[in-house]
Amino acid sequence: MALREGQKYRKALPDGPYKGKHLPKSVLDTPDDKTIVFHFDQPRAEVPFAVAMPNIGAVPPGKDTKEKYDKAPLASGPYKIQNFKPGKGIQFVKNDQWDPKTDSIRHQYVDKFDVSFGHQWVDSTRRLQADKGADRNAMTFTNAVDPSQISTVLKDKEAMSRSLTKTQPYVDVVSINTDRVKDKKVREAIAWAFPSGQYLQQFGGPKAGEIGGGLVGPTLKGYDPSFDPFQKKKYPGGNAKKARELLKEAGKENYELVYAYGNGDTHQDASVVVEQALERAGFKVQKKEIDQSTYYTQIGKVKNKYDLYRSSWGADWPSASTVVPPVYGGENVYDDSANYSHLNVPSVNDEISKVTKVSDLSRATSEWIKLSEKILTDDVPAVPTFYNRLFTLWGSGLGGVKFNSVYGAVDPTAVFVK
Amino acid sequence: MLRFLARRSLGAIVILILISAITFFLFFALPAEPARLACGKNCDPTSLAMINKNLGLDQPVPVQYWKFMVGIVAGRDFAVGHCDAPCFGYSFVSQEPVWSTIVDRFPTTLSLAVGGAAVFLVCGIGIGMIAAWRRGTWIDKFFSSLSLLGASMQIYFVGVLALAWFVSGLGIMDQPAYYPFTENPAKWFSGMLLPWVVLSLIFMANYSRMTRSQMVEQLQEDHVRTARAKGLSSRTVFFRYAWRGAIAPIVTIFGIDLGSLLGGAMVTEYTFTLHGIGRLAVESVQLTDLPMLMGVMLVSSAAIVVFNILVDAAYAFIDPRVRLA
């Protein structure tokens, strides 16, 4: 059995775990009160990463409330839910059943976490920078300093002493639709011409991200900072000369590209920079604006009529195994899939199956990185643009605020009120 | 009166059914995939089909619409249990019952609308009357310019400035937030004060300008001149004669404004991070959450329709010439 082998799992237990049956011991075994044994059909080096995800936890049989579980999950950590209103907020209070001696990572310093949802970045930045009243004890998980306020906050030394800027696991790329742009030389020319540095500037510059050289980011194990085959760091505005040469070699001068982007301000501004750089390199660019709320549905259609479009993907855990197969694996070419480039190359697919079977974790992670590099240089399915960064503030009344690079968010586990 | 109410209520129901049908069918014209949201990052066609089936999205649109409408009147059975009438179903996004979400968000919108309306009505009409009373003087000119300035303002601009100055800068006002009136009236008041003031700045302008022009017009009417000629005090003439005539169009506009405000003040709610009906409406459109969108649309439309009926009924009291039938 395998957690990932969906079909076999379904055969073993066609109705899921809610019909009074349990998985057979040959699949999942609990030899004593403290051990769960998963039997896999092949080596699965990354299981520890998978089970460390926040949506996985052991639940005693009597506490499994089935379809009602998500409304009132068992609290095994330092806090429990007091009240939850989806879309509005959630409050956590101390869990008196939690024993600090059994848990060296998390703490119970704060009496209560009152989390409210739906704050605009402009508003959370204003409040955290002003640091008034109850906001002195406020923090945010993922709200960044709004791009429009970055320069003001940078000048505010006091606020900057309550800030962090860290790289997140989210990687922005501009996917190339390989069904339409079939010539690899043309794709290479796009990759050389693309102005990743100038593009990043529209999203907030170095505080919003760092220029990306590859398809996977620095939060992953085995990441190589020197990997930058299209010299995105050296040429922030793109290398038009190199791109022109490639187009000439391919006999595709004045190649027409359809560039699609969401109709938000930032993307509209970025589209101008992109258009100019690609035209400098000898492309003809046709811009197509897409309504932001349906952007991913539209670019997610396999039969879309666009050549270039931005997409973003975050690794689930620090291995490129959670990036390469879903985003560049050939079996994932269907509507709404993350393989926006529609890349389906037999050698890549074979390599994915091979690396999946590697049993040694550190070898597996480095093989995945190597494969991501090979995909970029051999197939050019996307242009690396930037690795997202989180630049955020918190109130002066808080201590112990740190960053969790796996979740790409501020980590509340050691936060205390001064 | 009863006949009037019965006829108008029937008309209102027809309007609401039409609105519901238009919303429902238009939703499916969107190039969006609601099931995609519930499908997660590594979504494949099998999971997508399963979610579509669970949400009932695999059925023909008219069938879905019929089931939805029946649910509102008679309740509906779902896999998780029975949903009592009025059942608007479950949100595609949060899986919460739509009706209880609306009930939870409504007090915020009600507080914002009623409080804001009280401020803009009192200030707007007051300013308009002063301007009309002192017509042609600097007071009139000052207030007329002021209301023009107010009318050209936008909440997302004034609101953000007000937050930056009064809350973050000077610190003389509380961060806007909703606290239930029943739990803490003082906190409720201080939490809503800034949204009320900003909301009323925009609306106030309309009311002061309308009051002024109506009053000016009324003060030139024959019956007012007669009253003056009869030697009635200027206060009596102003309030009992002119004001009575001027109020009717103001009540009409107020009814419509209050109805729309109860359907949610989207920009105000976003600007001040208030979780009301307006914000819920915007979010349900962004997230292609059909049941929530339908619920919010129907509640908002019902508010407008009901207030229109109330305004028409109120006419009979304000203007004795109007007879309801």
Structure, explained:
The complex is a heterodimer of chains A (418) and B (325). Chain A is an alpha+beta fold and 418 residues long. Chain A folds into 3 domains: 1-73, no CATH class; 119-162 and 394-417, no CATH class; 167-389, Dipeptide-binding Protein, Domain 3 (Dipeptide-binding Protein, domain 3), CATH 3.10.105. Chain A is 28% helix and 20% strand. In chain A, strands 7-11-6-10-8-9 form a 6-stranded mixed beta sheet. In chain A, strands 3-4-5 form a 3-stranded antiparallel beta sheet, with no helix packed on it. Chain A is globular, with a radius of gyration of 24 Å. The relative contact order of chain A is 0.15. Chain B is mainly alpha-helical. Chain B is 73% helix and 2% strand. Chain B has 13 helices and 2 strands. A two-stranded antiparallel sheet of chain B has the order 1-2. Chain B is globular and about 85 Å long. The interface between A and B is large, with 35 and 41 residues. Chain A: One of its GO terms (biological process) is peptide transport. Chain A: This is Solute-binding protein family 5 domain-containing protein.
**What's the architecture of the largest domain in chain B in CATH terms?**
Orthogonal Bundle
The number of domains of chain B: 2
Order of strands across the main sheet of chain B: 1-2
Quaternary organisation of the protein chains = heterodimer
Strand proportion of chain B: under 5%
**In CATH, what is the class of the largest domain in chain A?**
Alpha Beta
The sequence of SSEs of chain A as H and E is HEEHEEEHHHEHHEHEHEHEHHHEEEEE
Biggest sheet of chain A: strands, sense, closure?
A: 6 strands, mixed
Question: What value does the Rg of chain B take, in angstroms?
Answer: 24 Å
- How would you name the CATH homologous superfamily of the largest domain in chain B? MetI-like
Mean pLDDT across every amino acid position of chain A? 90
The helix content of chain A is: 25-40%
- Determine the N-to-C terminus distance of chain A: 49 Å
Shape of chain A: globular
| Tally of separate helices of chain B | 13
CATH architecture of the largest domain in chain A: Roll
Biggest interface: A-B, 35 and 41 residues
The ordered H/E elements of chain B are HHHHEEHHHHHHHHH
